[in-house]
Amino acid sequence: MGAQALPARAGGLPEEWRAPLVQLAAVWAGLIALFWPEWRAMAHQWWDSSTYNHILMVPAIVGWLVAQRLPGLFALRAAAWGPGLAGLGAALVLWVLGAFAGFAQVTQIAAVAMLMMAVPMVLGPRVAAGVLFPLCYMAFLVPFGDELVPLLQTITAHITIALVHVSAIPAQIDGVFIHTPAGLFEVAEACSGVKFLVAMTAFGALCAHVCFLDWRRRAGFMALCVVVPVLANGVRAWGTVYAAQIWGREVAGGIDHIIYGWVFFAIVIGLILAAGWRFFDRPAGAPMLDLGAVQGARVLDWAEGFVVAPTRVLVGAGALALAAVGWVAVADRLSADMPDAITLPDVPGWRREEYTPRIWWEPRATGADHRLLGRYADAQGHVVDVFYGLYAAQGPGKKAGGFGEGALTPDSSWSWRSPGPDMADAKTDLLLAGGPTMRLAATTYRTGDLATGSNLRLKLANITDRLLLRRRSTMVLIVSAVEPGARGEGGITRPAAESIAAFRQSTGLIGNWMDGIARIGHDRATGD
């Protein structure tokens, strides 16, 4: 079925479009209401987190992009499209998987994708093709970037130390810490440059679409918008270190906040725009929608053969959404049986000692039903601190591998330095606190027969359990040790990695040991 051009309207909304737009508004309102927790969480981040304040502009930008296309869009036929239900269904499945994994960012991506998929479902494939970029730009409604912080910290630290050496300043790098004559500098999370990178990515995508027609020029401009902010952040960090050598750390810190917030990156934006200006190839006044291409696309002619009555997609959409919410609601009520109390067991060759670290270290396990924290030592001088968390289920507010959970508690005395050495069935991190005190932490997750240091593998196992409506507990074990020589830790004489390895060897299979604390019996005839 080919596209049918409608007579242009000099003003107002074409009559043929009124019912479809009302239907779309109703579907959007229903989806936002049904998945309100995701939208509320996103709105909270848009408003309260400086990293995501730029997202407050995204709805207005999407509206402007659609408005630029309205004259051409009104020449297209809007009609409900049966296969559009598959797109909405895929977004709902993604939401279910994210909810089962306790992964908020996935559920938020799915919530935005539902609104995107509703457009071809209610208005048809040809109209969706006409607003393809605005629909894709809606992806920037999802707050993303926190997962890039450790990588950006590391990159910034390496750029900084390279420039410091070029500047003939004696310095040493230790993970994300840089030692200079003016003092110790940390490339903290706030200094990673993630705020500017995510904002520049959204800006670059908009500018690349509006100002360029050639896809190669668009790709090149996007590359600038990603690479230059990262490099510029390294230069900014170097400038702070360099200024500290001259005027001191306090003065350099004040200059850094002023320059970083108001001057430096404004200059970077200007330079990126200046670099791309001469390559802009979209003629001034050119329409944002190539109506002829959309009307003449043969694949859209074929797709419009699946146009259906609006009531069919509306009822189908409602049924799919309610089924997804119901499935998750049932899974959320499942939880494993928990013992009334748990204790850290005796370990052959080790004795329990009072847990009195000079710098307090206590991992976070929000929502855990039981928590344990203690210290073990052996006759050879090995000393380890052991944290154990036991969850009856994984879900909202109960995420063993969630952001901010585990060995490094946000806003504590400890900072992440770098990944630690490889260790079987564990993820290792080196943490640093004032003194300086170095701590190696090895994290192992356990559910069912799985013992792993991979948060991804844990999430997949949790998803499988909830999909199959299985009641299984989840455990987290963090064995850590302080490196010898730390001030105030006189009893510690053995390297941290050696101490952790010795303790894990004494416990036997780490998964079985974790099960024993939770009083879970499993058949281990085939090994673990």
The number of helices is 18
General shape = flat
Structural class: alpha+beta
Q: Order of SSEs, N→C?
A: HHHHHHHHHEEEHHHHHHEEEEEEEHEHH
**Tally of discrete structural domains:** 3
Number of DSSP strand runs: 11
Largest sheet: 8 strands, antiparallel
User: What is the radius of gyration computed over CA atoms, rounded to a whole number of angstroms?
Assistant: 28 Å
Q: How far from one another are the termini?
A: 59 Å
Strand content: 5-15%
The overall average pLDDT, rounded, is 89
List low-pLDDT spans.
1-10, 522-528
Helix content: 40-55%
Keywords: Cell membrane, Hydrolase, Membrane, Protease, Transmembrane, Transmembrane helix
Membrane topology: Multi-pass membrane protein
Transmembrane segments: 21-39, 51-67, 79-103, 109-142, 193-212, 219-239, 259-280
Main location: membrane
List keywords for this structure.
8-stranded antiparallel β-sheet, disordered C terminus, 18 helices, 528 residues, alpha+beta, 3 domains, 3-stranded antiparallel β-sheet
